[in-house]
Design brief:
It contains 14 helices and 14 strands. Strands 5-4-3-2-1-6-8-7 form an 8-stranded mixed sheet, sandwiched between helices. Strands 11-10-9-12-14-13 form a 6-stranded mixed sheet, with helices on both faces.
C-alpha cells in the first residue's frame, strides 16, 4: 500500500510518498511560490539525485499536477502510474470540536472544515484548496484528513475551558484546542516503545520545540493538556509569538499606544517571542551566537524560552500525578543540546537528570537521561508525515 501525504500552505506544498508495507519514503519534495512568480518544485526520489523543476504554477491544482507527474516520470519517478497510490493523507490544521480522530474526507467533513475557517483563517483555506485539487486530479482515490487539533480532543473540560462567560464557548467555540497534535501523538508513541511499556501505562511530557512551540501532557496515550490554546499564540515563548501574557496588555496597548486590534495581533504573532526580546532574530542559532558574544538581551531571550518550557514540564507532571519520560522534538528540541540541558536544569527534584555526554546529539532518537534518573529524557525526531500515513492506512483498511 502506497500513501501520498500532502501538507498545503498558502503558497507552498510539502509531500511524501510512503510505502506502508515497510514505512519507507519513496519520494518527497517541496513546491514553493505557488501563484507567485518563480514557482519551483524540488523533488527528491529515494536513491536518486534531487530534481529541481522551475515552472509557473497559478494554483495548488497546478502544483499537485506537477508533483504527480514527477512521481510517475520515466526518469525520476518512483511509481509506474497513478493507480499505485492507494490513498492520500492530508494534513489539516483545525477541525474544531468536530473530530477527535482522522476521518475519510467526504462532503460532510469538507463542510465542517469550511465552518472552521474562522478558527484558522491562515491555515484551513490552503488545506481545503489542496484537498479539492487532489480530488479533481484523483477522483477515484480515497482521501483522509488528519487534524492537528484532533489528538487534543481528549482533554478534560477543566483543561480546555477558559474562565470566560460560558456562553462564549457555546456560541463561538472559544476554548483551548491545542496544535502540533500529530507530532505529539507520534513522539509519545515512540517514547512508550523506548520505555518498553504499553502507552496506556505511560505518563509523558512531549516538548515540540521549533519556531512554533508547544508542550503536551500525554497520559495513557491521551492528551490531557497542552500549552497552545484557542490559537497557536498561547503557551511557550516562540520565535515570533509572545505566548502566555496578561491579556490586559492588549487593551493597554490600544488605549495608551493607540494601536489597533490588527496592529496588536501582528505585534504578538510576528514581532514578539525571542525576536522581540533579543532584537536579533527569530532563529535560535543567531540568538545563541549573539549570546556567546555577550549580548545580554539575546541571553535573556534564551533564558525566557527555557524557563517557560521548564515551568510547563513541572505543571504537566503535576497534572498527570507523575511523569515517566520527557521528550524533546522538532527543530530546536532535536538539534540543540544546549537548550535541552538548560531546560532540564532545576528539574532534578522530579527525578529528571540529563547526561551531558549523551545529550551531545542532534536529530537522532536517543535516551539522554543520566544513570539513575527516575524519569527518562528522550530526543525523538518527529515524523508527522509517517503519522499521517499510518492514520490514512488505518482509515482505509478499517
Amino acid at each position: 500500500m502506497k500513501v501520498l501525504v500532502i501538507n498545503c500552505g498558502s503558497s507552498s506544498l510539502k509531500y511524501q510518498l510512503i510505502n506502508m508495507d515497510n514505512e519507507k519514503v519513496m519520494a518527497k519534495g517541496l513546491v514553493e511560490r505557488i501563484g507567485i512568480e518563480g514557482s519551483i518544485l524540488t523533488h527528491r526520489p529515494e536513491g536518486m539525485d534531487k530534481v529541481v523543476i522551475e515552472q509557473p504554477m497559478k494554483d495548488h491544482k497546478d502544483a499537485i499536477k506537477l508533483v504527480l507527474d514527477a512521481l510517475v516520470d520515466s526518469k525520476h519517478g518512483v511509481i509506474k502510474d497513478m493507480s499505485e497510490i492507494s490513498a492520500v493523507g492530508h494534513r489539516v490544521v483545525h477541525a474544531g470540536e468536530k473530530y477527535a480522530c482522522s476521518v475519510l474526507l467526504n462532503d460532510d467533513v469538507m463542510k465542517a472544515l469550511d465552518e472552521c475557517i474562522h478558527l484558522a483563517p491562515l491555515h484551513n483555506p490552503p488545506n481545503i484548496i489542496g484537498i479539492n485539487a487532489c480530488k479533481a486530479l484523483m477522483p477515484n482515490t480515497p482521501m483522509v484528513g488528519v487534524f492537528d487539533t484532533a489528538f487534543h480532543q481528549t482533554m478534560p473540560k477543566e483543561a480546555f475551558i477558559y474562565a470566560l462567560p460560558y456562553e462564549l464557548y457555546e456560541k463561538y467555540g472559544i476554548r483551548r484546542y491545542g496544535f502540533h497534535g500529530t507530532s505529539h501523538k507520534y513522539v509519545s508513541q515512540v517514547a512508550a516503545d523506548m520505555l518498553g511499556k504499553d502507552i496506556k501505562d505511560c505518563k509523558i511530557v512531549t516538548c515540540h520545540l521549533g519556531n512554533g512551540a508547544s508542550c503536551a501532557a500525554v497520559s495513557g496515550g491521551n492528551s490531557i493538556d497542552t500549552s497552545m490554546g484557542f490559537t497557536p499564540l498561547e503557551g511557550l515563548a516562540m520565535g515570533t509569538r509572545c505566548g502566555d501574557m496578561d491579556p490586559a496588555i492588549v487593551t493597554f496597548l490600544q488605549g495608551t499606544a493607540g494601536m489597533s486590534a490588527e496592529e496588536v495581533n501582528n505585534l504578538m504573532n510576528k514581532k514578539s517571542g525571542v525576536l522581540g526580546i533579543s532584537g536579533v532574530s527569530s532563529d535560535f542559532r543567531d540568538i545563541e551566537g549573539a549570546a556567546q558574544e555577550g549580548n545580554e538581551r539575546a541571553q535573556l531571550a534564551l533564558d525566557v524560552y527555557t524557563y517557560r518550557v521548564r515551568k510547563y514540564i513541572g505543571a504537566y507532571a503535576a497534572a498527570m500525578g507523575g511523569v515517566d519520560a520527557v521528550v524533546f522534538t522538532a527543530g530546536l528540541g532535536e538539534n540543540s543540546p544546549e537548550t535541552r540541558l538548560e531546560i532540564c536544569k532545576g528539574l532534578e527534584f522530579l527525578g529528571i537528570k540529563i547526561d551531558e555526554e549523551k545529550n551531545n546529539v542532534r536529530g537522532k532518537a536517543v535516551d539522554v537521561s543520566a544513570e539513575g534518573s527516575k524519569v527518562k529524557v528522550f530526543v525523538i525526531p518527529t515524523n508527522e508525515e509517517l503519522m499521517i500515513a499510518r492514520d490514512t492506512k488505518e482509515i482505509i483498511n478499517g
